[in-house]
Specification:
Chain lengths: 326, 145
C-alpha cells in the first residue's frame, strides 16, 4: 500500500512536471503563434508594398513605351527632314553644275563667235591689202578712199570682236594677292607715261591702302580710268586727275576724279554696258569697252562702281572693294 | 642654223589665207620654195614620204583650227616622225584670235617654236627668220613676183 502510495505520489509528481512542461510548451506555441501573426502581418504589408511597386513599374513602363514611340516618331521626322535636305542639296548641286555648263557654253560661244567672225574679216582685210598693192595705181582718188574705208571698218570690227572675247574671258585667270596699291598705281602711271606726257596730264595720288585684290585686273581698272580721264578732256584744258582711297562702312572706296567733259546723269548706268559709247568716233575715239571691263573687274571683287559727274566740269568714278579672304 | 629658210611649208585649210601668206613670203624674197598643204594629213604624208632634202621645209607655218586633224594633233604626229625631220623645221603656229589658252598650250609644246596671230605679215616673217635663221631676209634671192 505504502509502496502503491509512493508510486502514485511519484506518478503525480511526474504528471505535475509533465503538466508544467506542457504548459510551458503551450506558452511557447502561443508565443510562436503570436510571432507568426506579427510575421504574417509583416508579410502582408511587404506584399502590398510589392504590388504597389509593381503597379508603379507598370506605369513607368507605359511612360517609357510612350517616350520610345515619341522618339521613334521624332527619328522618323528627322529622317524625312534629312531626306528633304539631301534633296535640296542635290538640287543645288545640280543647279551649280547647270550654271557651270551654261557659263562654259557662253564662253565657248563667245570664243567661237570671235574666232569664226575674225576669219572672214581677215580675208576682207587681206584682199583689200592685195587690191591696194596691185591695182591702186590704176584707180582714181575716190577708189583709194573707199578701199581705206573698207580696211578701217574691217580693222575696227576685228578689234571689237577681240574685245568681246577679252571681255568674256576677263578674270578667268585671277589670283587674289595682298597688294600695296601705292606701288600698283605707280606702275600703272609708268606704263601710261607716253600718254600722260603727250596730254600734259597731272595726276595726284593720295595714300593708298594695302589689301587683297586681283592685281592684274585692278591694274587694268586704274589704267582704263586714267586713260578715260585723259581721253575725255576739253580741248583747252590740261587733264587734272585725283586718285583717292578711304575706308567707309567696312570697305575701301576708291575714286578717280578728273576735270574732263563730264557725263549727263541719264548715262550714269548705261556707260557700264559693253560697246556703249556717248560720242562719235570723230569727237572722241573709242570702242565702248573700258568701263564695261571696269564694272566686270569690280564685280569680280564683289564691290560696287558708280559715277558722279557734272557736265562740262568733270567726272568721278567711285568703286568699292570689300575685304576678300585669301 | 642655215642662213635663210630654203623651203617654207604652209599648212592651212583656208585657201584665202594660203594665197595671202604665200604672197607675203614671195614678196619678202625669203625663199621661192613654198609648199602649200590644205590638210594636216597631207602635210604629214608629204613630210613622211619626202626624201629630197631641198624640198624638205625648214620653216612651217601651221594653222590651229582645221577640219579633221587640227594643228595640235598635227604637232603630236609630227613629234612622232623621225628626229632628222623635225630637228630641221621651225614650227610657227598661226591662229585667228588671241586666245590665251592657245598661247599657253603653244608655250608648253616641245615642237612649236612660235605662236602668232594671223595674218602672216612681212614684219612677222622678218622677225621669225632673223630669230631662227642666222641672217635676216636674204637680199640675194631672186624674186618671182
Amino acid at each position: 500500500m505504502e509502496r502503491i502510495n509512493q508510486e502514485r505520489k511519484a506518478h503525480a509528481a511526474e504528471l505535475l512536471i509533465a503538466n508544467k512542461e506542457l504548459a510551458f510548451q503551450n506558452e511557447e506555441k502561443e508565443k510562436r503563434a503570436a510571432e507568426l501573426i506579427v510575421a504574417n502581418a509583416e508579410l502582408l504589408f511587404q506584399n502590398e508594398e510589392k504590388e504597389q511597386r509593381a503597379a508603379e513599374l507598370v506605369i513607368a513602363n507605359k511612360e517609357l513605351a510612350f517616350q520610345n514611340e515619341e522618339k521613334e516618331k521624332r527619328a522618323a521626322e528627322l529622317i524625312v527632314a534629312n531626306t528633304e535636305l539631301l534633296f535640296q542639296n542635290e538640287q543645288k548641286e545640280k543647279r551649280a553644275i547647270e550654271l557651270g555648263i551654261a557659263n562654259k557654253e557662253l564662253e565657248q560661244l563667245t570664243y567661237i563667235a570671235s574666232h569664226d567672225l575674225q576669219e572672214p574679216l581677215r580675208t576682207i582685210s587681206n584682199y583689200m591689202q592685195v587690191f591696194e598693192e596691185d591695182y591702186l595705181e590704176q584707180l582714181d582718188d575716190n577708189a583709194g578712199k573707199y578701199i581705206r574705208a573698207v580696211k578701217a571698218a574691217a580693222k575696227r570690227m576685228s578689234i571689237l570682236v577681240q574685245a568681246l572675247l577679252d571681255f568674256s574671258r576677263l578674270g578667268r585667270d585671277k589670283t587674289l594677292t595682298l597688294i600695296d596699291c601705292n606701288k600698283l598705281i605707280t606702275h600703272v602711271i609708268e606704263d601710261l607715261n607716253t600718254l600722260i606726257k603727250k596730254s600734259d596730264a597731272l595726276i595726284e595720288v593720295s595714300e593708298m591702302p594695302t589689301l587683297n585684290i586681283y592685281e592684274v585686273q585692278i591694274s587694268q581698272l586704274f589704267q582704263n580710268l586714267i586713260t578715260n580721264s585723259i581721253k575725255f578732256q576739253k580741248k583747252e584744258t590740261k587733264p587734272l586727275i585725283h586718285i583717292r582711297a578711304k575706308w567707309i562702312n567696312d570697305v575701301w572706296q576708291f575714286s578717280v576724279s578728273d576735270n574732263g567733259i563730264g557725263i549727263e546723269p541719264a548715262y550714269f548706268q548705261r556707260i557700264f554696258d559693253i560697246f556703249q559709247r556717248l560720242h562719235s568716233e570723230e569727237e572722241y575715239q573709242g570702242y565702248g569697252i573700258g568701263l564695261a571691263n571696269c564694272k566686270k573687274i569690280v564685280d569680280l571683287h564683289q564691290g560696287k562702281i558708280w559715277i558722279e559727274s557734272t557736265l562740262g566740269k568733270g567726272t568721278t568714278v567711285n568703286f568699292t572693294i570689300p575685304h576678300l579672304s585669301l | 642654223m642655215k642662213q635663210t629658210p630654203k623651203c617654207i611649208m604652209l599648212i592651212d585649210d583656208n585657201a584665202d589665207d594660203n594665197f595671202y601668206h604665200e604672197r607675203v613670203i614671195r614678196k619678202s624674197h625669203t625663199t621661192d620654195n613654198i609648199i602649200v598643204m590644205h590638210t594636216a594629213i597631207d602635210a604629214l604624208e608629204y613630210l613622211k614620204s619626202e626624201k629630197n632634202n631641198d624640198t624638205h621645209p625648214d620653216l612651217i607655218f601651221l594653222d590651229i583650227n582645221m577640219p579633221g586633224m587640227n594643228g595640235w594633233e598635227f604637232l603630236v604626229e609630227y613629234n612622232k616622225l623621225e628626229k632628222r625631220f623635225q630637228s630641221r623645221a621651225i614650227v610657227v603656229m598661226l591662229t585667228t584670235s588671241d586666245n590665251p589658252d592657245d598661247k599657253k598650250k603653244a608655250k608648253s609644246s616641245d615642237v612649236a617654236s612660235e605662236f602668232r596671230t594671223k595674218p602672216l605679215t612681212p614684219v612677222m616673217l622678218e622677225e621669225v627668220v632673223s630669230k631662227y635663221f642666222n641672217s635676216g631676209t636674204s637680199s640675194h634671192s631672186k624674186a618671182t613676183i
